[in-house]
Specification:
The protein is of the alpha+beta class and 366 residues long. It contains twelve helices and 18 strands. The protein folds into three domains: 84 residues, 3-Layer(aba) Sandwich (Rossmann fold), CATH 3.40.50; 61 residues, Dna Ligase, domain 1 (2-Layer Sandwich), CATH 3.30.1490; 186 residues, 2-Layer Sandwich (D-amino Acid Aminotransferase, Chain A, domain 1), CATH 3.30.470.20. The structure holds adenosine monophosphate (AMP).
Length: 366
């Protein structure tokens, strides 16, 4: 079967790598000639709204999917008229706008920080009054990895934050003094089957995910996350893998955002789960039976930002795995990740002692 992927970054690359054993073929649409998924699958070079390229992809593919959520709505609509497209365009639209997304959470009874829309400088003081400081001012659209946001702690911060972000629609959210951050990965197939991965604990720095860890929580918090995920899967008539990021405060979940795609906090599943998130996304969009989502032991995933550690040194660490995305090193760029898998927490801690410094992490990161 033929799978088209819009977007040719590392997520598309890992989808293709997971799909070949299933007998799938791939074509990738990306404007960049050197898109890293192009190293492992044929690349159609073109803009995401290039109608001729989209037509070609739709004509070739049995199903089309995405490796990022900010696909132009026009592109998703054009594809949907010609071929099965998963996740559905409605899920992309919901995730593209932080206000639509939080309103959906709220409608489904999924807790969120307080929030208010801010479309002009004049609206900001009223929003601050409703949400209360400290708060986070974010662009409604196109923000990722902590880009397009500013924390407001005092009224003096309003002017500079507006200077930095104003001019596009914004959202003001209450700042959550969270105990930790977690995510839920869930899959729903076109046949209606659902599957939920163990809750993942995530550590960010400067808004970018640095480290994920599993297992992360007892059954109560995990069940709460699965319950919220199920509500979203049902409401969105979702097909594919869905990731939802939460803050944990007072031992309860508060939703931050969702991603209608495979997710960085699910990379540990490549070695740490019975079936990887990439394979399950493909199984889901093709209507194949979903694979088991249970964790195999204990896992930590470390993101490599900017450049990669020395390969041989990583591979010399028992239980460690090395994943390069085939990208040129550049400050701030996600160029690969490492995973460490062990059968018990002691062995994991032992391996981490060696791996953390190799990957440029402080030894007391966890
Ligand atoms: P986002 O782009 O919304 O995922 O935000 C990136 C990171 O910024 C999150 O993972 C948090 O660490 C932090 N952050 C975002 N929103 C809030 C908030 N309302 N309260 C506290 N921290 C936040």
């Amino acid at each position: 079967m033929n799978v088209g992927i819009v977007g040719g970054g590392q997520l598309a690359r890992m989808l293709a790598l997971a799909g070949y054993p299933l007998g799938l073929r791939f074509q990738i649409l990306d404007p960049a000639m050197d898109a890293c998924a192009g190293q492992v699958a044929p690349l159609l070079q073109g803009a995401y709204d290039d109608a001729a390229r989209l037509e070609a992809l739709a004509a070739w593919a049995d199903v089309v999917t995405f490796d990022f959520e900010n696909v132009p709505a026009t592109a998703a609509q054009l594809l949907e008229q010609r071929v099965a497209v998963y996740p559905p365009a409605g899920a992309l639209a919901a995730a593209q706008d932080r206000v639509t997304e939080k309103t959906l959470f709220w409608e489904l009874g999924i807790p969120t920080p307080p929030f208010a829309t801010v479309d002009s400088w004049a609206e900001l003081p009223g929003a601050v009054e409703r949400v209360e400081l400290p708060a986070v001012l974010k662009t409604r659209r196109l923000g990722y990895d902590g880009k397009g946001q500013r924390v407001l702690r005092a009224s003096d911060d309003l002017g500079p934050a507006w200077q930095a972000l104003g001019g596009v629609p914004l959202i003001l959210e209450g700042f959550v003094p969270f105990e930790r951050e977690v995510s839920v990965l869930a899959a729903r197939s076109s046949a209606g089957e659902t599957a939920f991965y163990p809750l993942v604990e995530n550590h960010h720095r400067d808004g970018i995910l640095r480290l994920s860890r599993v297992p992360a929580a007892g059954p109560e918090l995990e069940y709460e996350g699965w319950d919220y995920a199920r509500r979203l899967l049902d409401r969105l008539d979702y097909v594919g893998l869905l990731a939802i990021e939460f803050f944990v405060k007072g031992g309860r979940l508060i939703a931050n955002e969702m991603a209608p795609r495979v997710h960085n906090s699910g990379h540990w599943t490549l070695e740490g789960a019975e079936t990887s998130q990439f394979e399950n996304h493909l199984r889901a969009i093709l209507g194949l039976p979903l694979g088991a989502t249970a964790a195999v032991g204990h896992s930590v995933m470390l993101n490599c930002i900017g450049d990669l550690p020395e390969r041989a040194a990583v591979l010399a660490t028992p239980g460690a795995h090395y994943h390069t995305y085939g990208k040129a090193p550049r400050p701030g760029r996600k160029v690969g990740h490492l995973t460490l898998r062990a059968n018990d927490p002691g062995a994991l801690a032992h391996g981490l002692k060696r791996l953390l410094p190799l990957a440029g992490f402080e030894e007391d990161t966890l």
